[in-house]
Amino acid sequence: MERIRTILAAFFIISTVFIAGCSDNSGNKAQSEQQNGQITTNDQAKNEKESSDKKNIKQVKATVYFPDENGQKLIASDRTLNTEVDDKYLAAVKVLLQGPKKGEGIAVIPKQAKLLAVSVDKNGIASVNFDNALVKNFSGGSTGEIMLVGSVTDTLTNFPEVKAVRFLVDGKPLATLSGHLDLTEPVKRMKNIL
Description:
This protein is of the alpha+beta class. The protein has 4 helices and 7 strands. The strands form 2 sheets. Strands 3, 4, 5, 6 and 7 form a 5-stranded mixed β-sheet that branches. Strands 1-2 form a two-stranded antiparallel ribbon. Helix 2 (about 90-100) packs antiparallel against helix 4. The longest helix is centred in the first third of the chain and has 57 residues, at about 1-60. About 20% of the residues are buried. Keywords: Signal. Pfam families: Germane. InterPro entries: GerMN (IPR019606).
C-alpha cells in the first residue's frame, strides 16, 4: 500500500509540474500574442503618421504672380505646389514657367528658357539660375523686363524667409536682362507692381 501511495504521490507531482508548465506556456503565448498585437498596432499607427506627414510635406500652398495683359501690375494666383521632387522655391518658379491659367494674366518667361536651379542661402537671398535661353529669347522691352523680374522676385519673396532674389544665367550673375534693370544686386520685393 505504501508503494502505491509513493507511486500516486510521484504521479501527482509529475502531473502538477506538467500542468503548471503547460499553463505557463499558454500564458506566455497569450502574453506574447498580446505584445505582438500591440507592436503591430503601434507600428501601424507609426506608419500611418509617417505617411500623413509625407502627404503634408509633398504639397505646399503658395502665391505666384503673373503680369496682367497691360503690363502694369502683377496678378496673384494661389497654387498648391507639389514638393515631392522639388523644394517649394523650385516648384514655385516652375509654376511661373508653366504660365498662368485663364484670367490670371500672361506668361512672361520665354518658353525656351530652362530653369537650372533655385536655392536660398542663410541670409534669405534666393538665387534663380536659368540657362542662356532666358536672355537669348527675351523679347520684351523695359516693361517686360520689369514684369519678368517682378514675377519671379515677388513669387519667391512671398515666402517669408526669402528677402531678395539674385538672377543667374548658366551659374553666372546676370547684370541685366535687356538693359533696363540693374540686376547686379539681389532684387527686393517689388511692391509697386502688386
